[in-house]
Design brief:
The strands form 3 sheets. A two-stranded antiparallel sheet has the order 1-4. A two-stranded antiparallel ribbon has the order 2-3. It has a two-stranded antiparallel ribbon with strand order 5-6. By secondary structure, the chain is mainly alpha-helical. About 65% of the residues lie in helices and about 5% in strands. The protein starts with 5 loop residues before the first strand and ends with a strand. The protein is built from 16 helices and 6 strands.
């Protein structure tokens, strides 16, 4: 006779003990005694699925939004097979429509991406890397405030050197650390499945608010989606370097269809694994969730998780800098940034000035900003230009009806992504205003101050040509040839 978990029940009698015996044909027999009451098994398959879906709804929704966004960018990448991502699409779609206002969205995107959102994303990931590297050395106490900043700055410097030195080396590191990331997630998933098999389902059964402290308010939901979508950031990364992709009309659709569903599935199962060890409150409170999970499950081998996640975040930071430098380079090549940023290394054929410029701004942001405000800032500005990019699909369908479209995204997905982008832009600003959103809005419109004299009227900046020639000689850089 096997005795299951027992508990008191506030029914008619508090002195009844249910004892379950194993039936030879798999059917449980229940007898009663005194003192306690046993939990009953009343959760069927539908209830179990509903419980997990309810917990993971934000992650699943963010995964679907990322997939739909990727499908939109497949069509954009095929119609305009050039590097630069959103900058190129905005310039090609709206530029010819008006002499002054047409190129303005593309310029404002390059202005905000080059000076703010790109480096801030790079800084956020580097700070995350620093947290995972430093936390194991302070298992029982709080680490010094300056330590993560110092480690993050070192991360930025190393990645800037790598991306300046060799494109091949950068992509090799990206591929290697992506493999490490998948292996780390596989370890977490397997450990979680083992815990589930051992009956660790209490946290899955507990009430969970997927929208955090914001509750189910519109602002709380938008904030939760901001954080979730930031974790999925990368579905548009390949479009930033389309000119460097082999056979882009084939590899771009394949990459989107393979990568986004794979990441979504891994994220969903990983979060279920986390809940086999940690309560929802512990998930929210932990600054390094995977490290906390490893301590609770892997014992003396717990160091594997922070090491793997540190490698993963380092790879993500490398990819962020790689993409940011391409946007900066293409914008400068189009005349929307200073000319020297469009130069490339003569010997190494990398966008050296753009890489160094982006790394320098990221280090400045690490020194002065908090990671939470940087995430809000990055997400808010990014979705403004995502909305304009999704709308450019409809513009191209009118202005480039005969354009090469091996894939045509359904119109309903385009409309859904545009509406979603606008909602993510407006709801937090209207219902939960913060300094991050104000800073983002002001940073965009300050770009007009430089757009009018230097871009629209093409006024030269005194001394800039001389500085460009000096840097070209010192750094062995030269203008790239546009193909």
């Amino acid at each position: 006779m096997d005795l299951d978990v027992l508990r008191k029940d506030g029914g008619e009698s508090d002195n009844i003990l249910c004892v379950t015996t194993a039936h030879p044909h798999g059917v449980a027999d229940t007898t009663t005694a005194t003192n306690k009451v046993q939990l009953e098994r009343k959760m069927g398959l539908i209830s179990c699925v509903g419980m997990i879906v309810g917990t993971m709804i934000v992650w699943l929704s963010c995964g679907l939004i990322s997939l739909f966004g990727g499908l939109c960018y497949i069509e954009l990448g095929c119609v305009v097979p050039k590097s630069g991502g959103e900058y190129t699409y905005l310039l090609e779609a709206y530029g010819p429509l008006h002499r002054f206002f047409g190129p303005l969205p593309a310029y404002l995107y390059s202005y905000s991406r080059t000076l703010a959102t790109g480096p801030s994303g790079f800084a956020v990931i580097s700070l995350s890397f620093a947290t995972y590297v430093a936390q194991p050395f302070y298992p029982t106490g709080e680490m010094p405030w300056w330590l993560p900043k110092a480690v993050a700055a070192g991360c930025v410097l190393i990645i800037s050197v790598i991306n300046s030195a060799s494109v091949r080396l950068s992509t090799l590191i990206q591929n290697t650390f992506t493999a490490v990331k998948v292996i780390a997630l596989a370890v977490i998933i397997v450990a979680g499945l083992i815990r589930l098999g051992q009956g660790s389902t209490a946290n899955l059964a507990s009430p969970f608010t997927p929208f955090g402290n914001g509750g189910h308010t519109a602002a709380g939901i938008a904030s939760a989606f901001y954080s979730g979508l930031w974790s999925y950031e990368g579905w548009n990364q390949l479009n930033l370097s389309m000119e460097e992709v082999i056979n882009p009309f084939v590899n771009l659709p394949r990459a989107i269809w393979i990568a986004v569903p794979l990441v979504t599935g891994l994220y969903l199962v990983t979060n279920v694994a986390y809940l086999t060890v940690m309560t929802p409150a512990e998930l929210v409170a932990s600054e390094a969730v995977a490290v906390t999970f490893g301590k609770g499950v892997l014992g003396v081998m717990a160091w594997i998780i922070p090491f793997s996640v540190a490698c993963s975040t380092f790879g993500s930071a490398n990819g962020s800098n790689f993409g940011n430098a391409r946007v900066c380079y293409v914008a400068a090549r189009g005349g929307h940034m200073i000319k020297v940023l469009s130069y490339i290394s003569i010997s190494r054929l990398t966008p050296l000035p753009a890489v160094v410029f982006q790394g320098s701004i990221a280090i400045f942001m690490i020194a002065v900003g908090g990671i939470t405000s940087l995430v809000d800032f990055f997400s808010f500005v990014a979705w403004l230009f995502y909305a304009l990019s999704f709308m450019s699909i409809l513009v191209f369908r009118r202005t480039r009806k005969d354009g090469h479209r091996p894939y045509r995204v359904p119109l309903v997905i385009v409309v859904f992504m545009f509406v979603t982008s606008v909602a993510l832009l407006i709801l937090p600003l209207a219902l939960k205003p913060s300094w991050a959103y104000l800073y983002a809005t002001l940073s965009i419109f300050t770009g007009i101050i430089f757009y009018v004299p230097f871009i629209f009227y093409e006024k030269p900046v005194p001394g800039l040509d001389g500085a460009t020639r000096f840097l070209a000689r010192c750094c062995q850089i030269a203008p790239s040839e546009v193909t």
